[in-house]
């Protein structure tokens, strides 16, 4: 298992333990995690604290050069908002744990030159399938159903 994907999975588990949504993310620069986060939309009453946004926030202010050298790992395919942040900051590579339960804006990212690698990790898939089955109201709230 990739240690950075494992770190994103660990973040996702924190989210579910806190009563939130099991989506985690880490921002990696030069082989080191500089930001980590998980979806805290429920815990914080926030419409924007998705896993990737939390990881970016927790990385603090970085220079454009640093962002252009980063890889962001996320347990779930990034939504429009998170994909927009990836594009805004020029992050060149995204490692996606899974896109079976939700297909985000991967084609948009690729069309703008971002390398997107989807792993279809069984742990990531299982966490989301369980969450969607057990808490459909929270899942539907977040994806606008």
Précis, in short:
It contains 8 helices and 5 strands. The protein has 145 residues and is α/β, with parallel strands linked by helices.
Structure explained in plain terms:
The protein has 145 residues and is of the alpha/beta class. It is built from 8 helices and 5 strands. It has helices at 3-17, 41-44, 51-59, 64-67, 80-89, 106-111, 122-134, 136-143; strands at 24-29, 32-38, 70-74, 93-96, 115-118. It has a 5-stranded mixed β-sheet. The N and C termini lie far apart (33 Å). The model has no long low-confidence stretch (mean pLDDT 96).
List keywords for this structure.
single chain, 145 residues, alpha/beta, 5-stranded mixed sheet, 5 strands, 48% helix
> Approximately how much helix is present in the residues?
40-55%
Relative strand content: 15-25%
Please report the number of helical segments: 8
Radius of gyration: 14 Å
* Dominant shape: globular
Give me the count of strands: 5
List the helices and strands and how they pair.
Layout: H1 3-17, E1 24-29, E2 32-38, H2 41-44, H3 51-59, H4 64-67, E3 70-74, H5 80-89, E4 93-96, H6 106-111, E5 115-118, H7 122-134, H8 136-143
Parallel strand pairs: 3-4, 4-5
Antiparallel strand pairs: 1-2, 1-3
């Amino acid at each position: 298992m990739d240690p950075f994907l494992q770190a994103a999975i660990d973040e996702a588990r924190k989210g579910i333990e806190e009563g939130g949504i099991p989506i985690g993310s880490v921002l990696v620069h030069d082989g080191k995690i500089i930001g980590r986060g998980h979806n805290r939309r429920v815990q914080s009453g926030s419409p924007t604290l998705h896993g990737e946004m939390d990881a970016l926030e927790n990385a603090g202010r970085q220079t454009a050069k640093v962002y252009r050298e980063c890889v962001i790992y996320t347990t779930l395919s990034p939504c429009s908002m998170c994909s927009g942040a990836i594009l805004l900051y020029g992050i060149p590579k995204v490692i996606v744990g899974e896109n079976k339960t939700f297909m985000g804006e991967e084609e948009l990212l690729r069309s703008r030159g971002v390398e997107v690698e989807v792993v279809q990790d069984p742990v990531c898939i299982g966490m989301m399938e369980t969450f969607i089955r057990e808490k459909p109201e929270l899942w539907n709230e977040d994806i606008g159903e």
